[in-house]
């Protein structure tokens, strides 16, 4: 027995989950509870993907031992003979131990076999040397390198499965809704979270209730704790399989097609222009909606002074606002005392109004941040594609880039010439080759999903290949093929989750740009879709007894923990087997872009390619990219001029307030001049150049603020209101720190 491969997989999976969480999340800013829950969800979901192939290889080894078990031994006696079948031992290590003891013993120890007749006594019947228990199976079946004891994987699956189910149905949805709630108390946030998750819990309880009524209506079944557990697992897997089929129907076609389109640079650049044009409208709407919410907060903050009973809640709302909004409110007369009587507190100043306002600002900031991050990523992608187009026309065959420079160590191998050949010549062919491979994989998945329930002849392609490897005892190939297949199914499913427009509120962005709510949503979907996906994979390779209908078929430890839906035959023998056939219809609709064309008919413009409206969006996106490029170039030129001026004349010459009097002026402030230069010329030389890229303040607004500050008098300068201002100026540290 060697637990080394299992330990290595557990450690490597932990490292992969930590790396992904570090790449997409910001560990320094996000709450520790979000980091911990998301890490566990990602880690356990990845463990299912990488450890299930090991369980498959061990199952084939146990099946080999079962098929090559010692034959039936017939014992003759004075009483009627009985047939005693030596069942295979549960622990395969016992085979080798019994065989070694038998070979080292000259005289075989007689086996005591019970007689079938009542009142009979056992008799001794020595077995031949070639009939020693376990010796034939041990000599024929090869033990996998990754073999572990039979009680290891079941214990591991119990911890992984039930922890992931608790996370996906209870903890993560409540955390997500709790952080988005606008209430100011813990109980209020929990109540809002329960109401918001009523849809998810309602769908689950609906499936659970139907299954429970079906079991209760059958007189031959009794409801106990074990059956309730199976009903709960059935409801969860049914919900997950329903969503999984919808996601796979889109992803199995769109993933290879997107890879093929990446090879066509012109098509990809046009698609990027189209996305930028659509995102521009969404970005503008998000910014306008946020400005409306902030303006409403300003009006509400002017009514709620420092001695108002709702002022602490108002400070909580202000803490979520941007710094510019809080800074603008510091100069107003927020701290003026006002006598709030019973008739003064109107309905518009109630706590429910602040709760709604608090939730609006949370959602508005999340939407504005999402659109801004997606805008930056699309702009970077458009700049990179335009650079490739420009470098393809360069006869020097050296790639010239204005993006982030390559690391010096990597540049020794990845020279500009190598970069030019890779991006301008080789990359497109690599994408085409990968697209063809993914097309073959998608066809294999669709074919097997439609025919995996046919046992003879075996039509599931994955079952055919896995069985060939099993006959040759090639356990390494079995594990590798299983990992690649499950990983591809997961990628297609999760790719669809973030590409469907209705779920576009959540996003995954690298370089620590994914917010906490998207991380929680990702962990929730991983835990919810991975178990039914793995059960579907076991059906594809015929390791599910409900597919093969074999009585002597050994099952994986994962299936033993999950249990069979024998209690609900409609789901076990009907829905789980025949519903995946719907993938064919969904793939056909996705291939012909029926969904995109229908959305375009209803006004939701999609990138189709042969539409006039699409061409207009592409042209608009191209102009937006040019405008953004000019803006970046002007900013870079302004920074360069400012840097050159600072290096030439020093920091002291940039501001007249820092220049001492002429009599006390140090030598470094003196600028050499020719005798024919006048004093005016000298002063003009020391003036800081005008930077047209900066956003100068409005003189009228400055004058108005100065008048307002002057009218406040001593009240604006008092220190007795410092605590109120500081409370509203410090933002909350995390999404759970506002109560």
From TrEMBL:
Pfam families: LMBR1. Its main location: membrane. It is a multi-pass membrane protein. Residues 719-729 have a biased composition (Low complexity). Residues 689-739 are annotated as: Disordered. Signal peptide: none annotated. Keywords: Coiled coil, Membrane, Transmembrane, Transmembrane helix. It is found in: Membrane. Residues 276-303 form a coiled coil. InterPro entries: GPCR-associated_LMBR1, LMBR1-like_membr_prot. The chain crosses the membrane at residues 6-25, 32-52, 193-217, 237-255, 429-455, 475-498, 519-541, 575-594. It comes from the Eukaryota. The keyword Coiled coil applies. One of its GO terms (cellular component) is membrane. The keyword Signal does not apply. Belongs to the LIMR family. PANTHER family: G-PROTEIN COUPLED RECEPTOR-ASSOCIATED PROTEIN LMBRD2. This is LMBR1 domain-containing protein 2 homolog.
């Amino acid at each position: 027995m060697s637990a080394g491969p299992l330990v290595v997989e557990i450690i490597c999976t932990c490292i992969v989950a930590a790396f992904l969480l570090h790449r997409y999340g910001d560990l320094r800013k996000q709450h520790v509870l979000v980091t911990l829950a998301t890490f566990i969800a990602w880690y356990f979901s990845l463990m299912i993907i990488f450890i299930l192939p090991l369980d498959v290889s061990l199952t084939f080894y146990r099946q080999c031992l079962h098929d090559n078990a010692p034959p039936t031994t017939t014992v003759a006696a004075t009483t009627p003979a009985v047939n005693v079948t030596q069942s295979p031992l549960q622990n395969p290590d016992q085979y080798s131990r019994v065989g070694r003891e038998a070979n080292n013993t000259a005289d075989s120890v007689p086996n005591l076999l019970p007689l079938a007749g009542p009142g009979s006594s056992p008799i001794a019947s020595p077995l031949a040397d070639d009939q020693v228990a376990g010796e034939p199976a041990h000599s024929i079946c090869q033990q996998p390198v990754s073999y572990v004891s039979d009680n290891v994987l079941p214990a591991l699956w119990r911890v992984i499965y039930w922890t992931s189910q608790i996370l996906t149905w209870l903890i993560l949805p409540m955390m997500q809704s709790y952080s988005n709630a606008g209430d100011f108390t813990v109980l209020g946030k929990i109540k809002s979270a329960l109401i918001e998750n009523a849809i998810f819990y309602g769908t689950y309880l609906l499936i659970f209730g139907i299954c429970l009524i079906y079991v209760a209506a059958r007189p031959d079944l009794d409801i106990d704790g074990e059956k309730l557990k199976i009903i709960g697992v059935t409801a969860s897997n049914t919900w997950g399989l329903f969503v999984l089929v919808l996601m796979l129907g889109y992803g199995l076609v769109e993933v290879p097609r997107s890879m093929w389109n990446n090879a066509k640079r012109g098509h990809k650049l046009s698609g990027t222009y189209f996305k930028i044009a659509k995102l521009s409208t969404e970005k503008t709407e998000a910014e306008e909606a946020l400005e409306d919410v902030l303006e409403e907060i300003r009006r509400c903050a002017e009514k709620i002074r420092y001695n108002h009973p709702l002022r602490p809640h108002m400070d909580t709302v202000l803490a979520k606002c941007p710094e510019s909004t809080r800074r603008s409110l510091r100069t107003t007369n927020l701290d003026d005392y006002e006598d709030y009587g019973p008739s003064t507190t109107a309905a518009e100043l109630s706590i429910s109004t602040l709760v709604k306002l608090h939730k609006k600002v949370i959602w508005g900031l999340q939407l504005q941040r999402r659109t801004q991050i997606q805008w930056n990523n699309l702009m970077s992608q458009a700049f990179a594609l335009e650079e490739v187009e420009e470098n393809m026309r360069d006869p020097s065959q050296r790639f010239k880039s204005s993006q982030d420079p390559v690391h010096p160590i990597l540049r020794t191998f990845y020279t500009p010439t190598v970069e030019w050949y890779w991006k301008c010549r080789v990359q497109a062919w690599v994408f085409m080759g990968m697209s063809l491979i993914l097309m073959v994989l998608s066809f294999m998945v669709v074919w097997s999903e439609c025919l995996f329930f046919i046992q003879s002849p075996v039509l599931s392609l994955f079952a055919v290949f896995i069985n060939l490897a099993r006959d040759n005892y090639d356990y390494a190939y079995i594990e590798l093929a299983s990992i690649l297949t499950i990983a591809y199914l997961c990628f297609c499913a999760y790719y669809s989750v973030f590409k469907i427009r209705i779920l576009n509120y959540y996003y995954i962005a690298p370089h620590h740009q994914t917010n906490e709510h998207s991380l929680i949503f990702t962990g929730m979907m991983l835990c919810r879709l991975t178990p039914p996906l793995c059960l579907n994979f076991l059906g594809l390779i015929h390791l599910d007894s409900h597919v093969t209908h074999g009585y002597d078929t050994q099952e994986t430890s994962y299936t033993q923990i999950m249990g069979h839906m024998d209690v609900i035959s409609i789901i076990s023998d009907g829905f789980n087997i025949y519903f995946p056939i719907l993938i064919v219809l969904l793939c056909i609709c996705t291939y012909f872009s029926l969904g995109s064309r229908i959305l375009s008919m209803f006004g939701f413009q999609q990138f189709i390619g042969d539409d006039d409206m699409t061409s207009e969006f592409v042209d608009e996106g191209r102009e937006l990219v040019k405008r953004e490029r000019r803006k970046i170039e002007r900013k870079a030129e302004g920074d360069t001029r400012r840097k050159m001026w600072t290096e030439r004349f020093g920091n002291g010459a940039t501001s007249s307030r820092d220049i001492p009097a002429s009599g006390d002026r140090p030598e470094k402030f003196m600028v050499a001049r020719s005798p024919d230069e006048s004093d005016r010329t000298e002063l003009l030389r020391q003036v800081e150049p005008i930077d047209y890229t900066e956003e100068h303040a409005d003189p009228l607004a400055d004058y108005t603020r100065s008048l307002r500050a002057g009218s406040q008098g001593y009240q604006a300068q008092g220190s007795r209101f410092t605590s109120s201002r500081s409370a509203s100026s410090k933002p909350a540290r995390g999404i759970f720190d506002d109560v």
